[in-house]
């Protein structure tokens, strides 16, 4: 047997839970006892928690928690890992290559039937996300590493307003994937406050010599959602929005990022949301407008009025277009 096979055999012997001495292992493997000592040393160096008990009744054994740990993935775990790699690759996850290497190692140590099963699960899953550039992936790696190690970055950020990218120092607390885009959240020294930045608008991310400590319990995800839904999550003046409609239509509405977080009650043919007044008078009517007659707004009446106003404005706009064409 090869050295790797013999070391794995020693691991399996110890994993049985029995204490074995070097001579017993030597006899089973049919190798010199000094070879067993070298293999034990190599296993310890690789991080295997082997305990050596001295004395006449001594020998080698594994820590209990390592004995109880599985040395292989079952088929459900293999399937989940393969599917996770697909999601990661399509979303632009910065360590996709490392995840793919892990999946390839998984495939390397499977038999033909298991490999066929893994490939069939892989081929049966597809994910569609907006494409992400190699530059963005590189920036994501730097941002994630800086967030974990507490390294301040000097980013160049393009606001998308036809102005030159501006430099600012950022303490990145984390990265968040939301609705097809990656964001980083952290303390901006320019604004002297917590801010979020779209990664696709960052043009450079050089490191600085400064270090920072991320606040205990801070959630980049929660911060981003509070900023995306300021009046719906933070306002004390929330308004009940009661909508009636077909089950399929209401299900689709509840999956929307805004309404999903504002849902309070759900029953057959009706859903109750709580939204802030600013939302009701700005973007909410435009979210509801495409559903047309499939939805009925029971409350509040102000939202019905706003929808009527928006609809009339659109009808007038298209009437003018018809006249221009004529």
TrEMBL record:
Residue ranges occupied by any WYL domain in the UniProt entry: 139-205
Domain of life: Bacteria
One Pfam family, short name: HTH_11
Domain Helix-turn-helix type positions: 8-61
PROSITE patterns given in the database record: WYL
PANTHER family linked to this entry: PROTEIN PAFB (PTHR34580:SF3), PTHR34580
Protein name: YafY family protein
Organism from which the protein derives: Paenibacillus lacisoli
